[in-house]
């Protein structure tokens, strides 16, 4: 459903909406890992996925109202970067800008965009 590539091109990240998985592939297509996250998928649109310039993997948790940071091999969730405590509901897109030092989140239910200062 969604895909992103690491800055060095060594890893390809793909969201499998049907199985609620983040699949991590090597450059040659070998599966490195498949992380199942029940809160990942969306019934209506592509769940957001972004790899930052420094290689951090950010994934929208549509059902959980959270943005997750996943390790570079896609094996585990490292942190909940943004949660619904900050007004996030049904996140569909995420982008981290190193130029502005911000995380930008687009949401489905209310068509809002929220900008957070990354620390």
Structure description:
InterPro entries: 6-blade_b-propeller_TolB-like. The structure is a single chain. This protein has a single domain, classed as YVTN repeat-like/Quinoprotein amine dehydrogenase (Methylamine Dehydrogenase, Chain H, 7 Propeller). It has strands at 2-5, 11-16, 21-26, 31-36, 49-51, 57-61, 66-70, 77-82, 91-97, 102-107, 113-117. A hairpin with a 6-residue loop joins strand 7 and strand 8 (77-82). A 4-stranded antiparallel sheet has the order 1-2-3-4, with no helix packed on it. Strands 5-6-7-8 form a 4-stranded antiparallel sheet, with no helix packed on it. It has no helices and 11 strands. The radius of gyration is 13 Å and the shape is globular.
Chart the SSEs and their pairings.
Elements lengths: L1 E4 L5 E6 L4 E6 L4 E6 L12 E3 L5 E5 L4 E5 L6 E6 L8 E7 L4 E6 L5 E5 L2
Question: How would you concisely characterize the structure shown here?
Answer:
With 119 residues, the protein is mostly beta strands.
Helix/strand class: mainly beta
Report the C-alpha radius of gyration, rounded.
13 Å
CATH superfamily: YVTN repeat-like/Quinoprotein amine dehydrogenase
Helix tally equals: 0
What would CATH call the class?
Mainly Beta
- Strand fraction: over 45%
In spatial order, strands of the major sheet run 1-2-3-4
Mean pLDDT: 86
Gross CATH architecture? 7 Propeller
Kindly report how far apart the N and C termini lie. 29 Å
How many domains make up the coordinates? 1
What is the ordering of alpha helices and beta strands?
Answer: EEEEEEEEEEE
Shape: globular
> Main sheet?
4 strands, antiparallel
Low-pLDDT windows of residues: none
- The CATH topology corresponds to Methylamine Dehydrogenase, Chain H
Binned, the helix content reads: under 10%
Q: Can you count the beta strands?
A: 11
């Amino acid at each position: 459903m969604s895909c992103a590539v690491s800055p060095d091109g060594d890893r390809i990240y793909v969201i499998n909406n049907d199985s609620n998985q983040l699949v991590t592939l090597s450059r040659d297509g070998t599966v490195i890992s498949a992380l199942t996250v029940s809160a990942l998928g969306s019934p209506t649109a592509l769940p957001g996925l972004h790899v930052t310039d420094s290689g951090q993997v950010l994934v929208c948790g549509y059902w959980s109202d959270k943005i997750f940071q996943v390790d570079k091999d896609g094996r585990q969730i490292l942190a909940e970067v943004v949660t619904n405590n900050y007004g996030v509901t049904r996140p569909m897109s995420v982008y981290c800008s190193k130029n502005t030092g911000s995380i930008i989140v687009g949401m489905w239910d209310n068509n809002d965009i929220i900008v957070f200062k990354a620390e």
